[in-house]
Amino acid sequence: MKLGNIDKEIIRLTQAGLPLTNKPYLNIAQRLGITESQVLDRVNAMKNSRVIRRIAAVPNHYKIGYVANGMSVWNIPDDKIMDYGKQIGQLSFVSHCYQRPRHPGIWEYNLFAMIHARNRDEVYELAKEIAELLGDDNHGYEILFSKRILKKTGLRI
Amino acid sequence: MSQTDDTHLLDDTDKRIINSLQKGFPVCSRPFKKAADEIGTNEDELISRISILLDENFLTRFGPMYDAAEFGGGLTLAAMTVPDDKFDWVSDYLNSVKEVAHNYEREHVLNMWFVLGTEHQDDIDRVIKQIENETGLVVYNMPKLHSFFVNLYLPVD
């Protein structure tokens, strides 16, 4: 989808969050000098084209008890990855699920799934669920835990 | 990573809000009213509680989640094996590179993992070359080849 100027303005006004007022889309419309229904139309269009992945609250997973997260990485036959990727992405404990390239010799994994849980043991258990789902098509996996956040500024346009 | 489980500070209404709004938020003129009806609270109470949950960092974001890849810019995940005696220097260096959005230390031979975001797709290769030249280390580029739809839900109980 090609973003128009109005889309870019809406993104600019909402990338830090939706206004916390009774009519948040009217608030955005008034700041842009357009109508509320124009804003609603553009937001729906961006949702449909996946520019907006979803509109929701993102909990701080540490503070609500999900203090362990592991980046699970999997070696799956390339010709089956679309099917398995869809299934793994649907699991409620997976926050990101991507196919990425292998680097033969140092990195044989082609599927990444970020697992969130209350502790490391639970992360290992949930990874076993994924392993069971893959059966014989699981050609190896690892879970990489983060030791430290060195930088987190987020992306801005 | 030092944050701990603070769910004991939440009451049942807070928990219902966090659980419900993770799943999505309506696009309409008065979305807080619609969401409040489903949660079993009222519009003003919902707005005020979301504001407090954000201030207290139980929620890190509330609003549209944009997919940066759809903006037309460049986005990738990259990893390096950084020797111990160079670790702090490389970490400081990456923090100074404005295209580095996140950087994590992970427990693996590939011990430094970072996300690069650039205004144009073409810039990714240039920034990677620059990082390799400055650090003398190999950067393994792992751009996403396919993004699978996720359905993350971390309930608070």
Report on the structure:
The complex is a heterodimer of chains A (157) and B (157). Chain A has helices at 5-14, 24-32, 36-48, 81-89, 120-134, and strands spanning 52-59, 68-74, 94-99, 111-117, 141-152. The longest helix of chain A is centred in the last third of the chain and has 15 residues, at 120-134. With 157 residues, chain A is an alpha+beta fold. Chain A has a 4-stranded antiparallel sheet with strand order 3-4-2-5, covered by helices on one side. Chain A is 36% helix and 25% strand. Chain A has 2 domains: 5-48; 68-145, Alpha-Beta Plaits (2-Layer Sandwich), CATH 3.30.70.3460. With 157 residues, chain B is α+β, with helices and mostly antiparallel strands. Chain B folds into 2 domains: 10-55; 68-141, Alpha-Beta Plaits. In chain B, 36% of the residues lie in helices and 21% in strands. Chain B has 5 helices and 6 strands. Chain B has a 4-stranded antiparallel sheet with strand order 3-4-2-5. Chain B starts with 11 loop residues before the first helix and ends in a 10-residue tail after the last strand. In chain B, 27% of the residues are buried. Classes of the chains: A alpha+beta (157), B alpha+beta (157). The interface between A and B is large, with 79 and 81 residues.
